[in-house]
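Q: Here's a chain of 322 amino acids. Please give me its 3D structure as tokens.
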Amino acid sequence: MRSTLYCVLCVLLTLVLAACSLRYLRESWPLSFLYSLQLHATLACLAGAVVALALRRHVYGVFLLAWAAALVVHALIMLQEFRRDPSPQALAAPHFRLLSFNIMGDNSENGERIADYILSSRADVAVILEARPLFSQLDRLARLFPHRIGCETGGEDCDLLLLSRRPFVETMKASLSDLRRNRFALARIEFAGQKLNIAATHLTKPYYDHYHDEELYNLGELIEAAEGPLLVAGDFNSDIIAPDMQAFIRNGGLTTAPSEPRTWPIRAGAYGIAIDHVFARQPAELIETRRIPDAFGSNHYGLVSQFAIAAPNITNDAQKAP
């Protein structure tokens, strides 16, 4: 009986670990969501390998244990790769607050409560995804956020809503693929004497064929064309350890906060995964990103981020001058 259980467990562990490892050979979109769960899946496999060795001491069990441990370690390394502590210059500079929240499109019964939270959040800019529940609250929100992109009719254009206390210098909207329309918006505002680019996006789920890859590529092209400090916020439907997310962040020169909160599923709390993100590009720097305390009926938690545009180090620059 113990040998049978050992064999069954080893087969299951081998299948899961092989699926997680396929990313190192070639990406496969049917497994794309598993890549976001690499840490969770391989930790479970690590525990399973310990159980297998308790059932029967065999070299294959040791191999599975080492295989799972290697994948866990690499997942932890990937989670840390793009995290940056703020510089002293950023800590001393004026801070900018951004709220990003997928409120869920059929969450209309909580629209008023969500609007109350946005008004009390002290955010300079709010990026709201699946924003239809807020359509009836736009007049209230306009008192503090008079500048808006999206939700002109309350229909499909209400998937992405960008609210700002500060006037827009320049705006644009775009579609990242032919599957969903107008899921990208870019606004340029004045902050700390500079033009600050704010990009808002809502990506398709990664297991919808190759759309997630395509949309990330197009998003990368759009933000590359935006010169100067940049913030990117929204629902990416994928963790940063997924291969296409790794390429997008690396190619875009983006960074995350020192800690990225888990936002989905809400029942998992701190044990979930981060599929909603806020990124920065120099000279914009993230000071912190934290999860809002209430999901307000959504299946995502929202995020509040503090940013700053780091001033150049005048002393060092002067020392380098001939």
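Q: Can you summarize the key feature?
A: Residues 314-322 have pLDDT under 50 and may be disordered.
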